[in-house]
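Model it.
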Amino acid sequence: MDNKANKEREQLWQERVAQLKASGMSQRAYAMECGLSEHQVSYWVRRITSPQAVPALLPVQVAPSVLPAVASISLRSECGWTLTLPSDVPASWLAELLAAL
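Modeled.
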């Protein structure tokens, strides 16, 4: 359903809820008189009369990382060899290397 149709439907239900309140009838009686589902009337009454929740925004400060930069990566095998690589080695290349070992 497009945005225009949604707005029109909401406007229609705002009018119906206002009529319901002005009539003094129960939701069940109003639904029966207008040929509407009692569940649907109840849903729209809650939706229209409930305060809309507004998401809270929290202030955030981004701080530089305090972790030390890694100069190299060392790989040690169970067989005893060690391979030391620079830390800027592409992850894809390192994955291929490990798969080949």
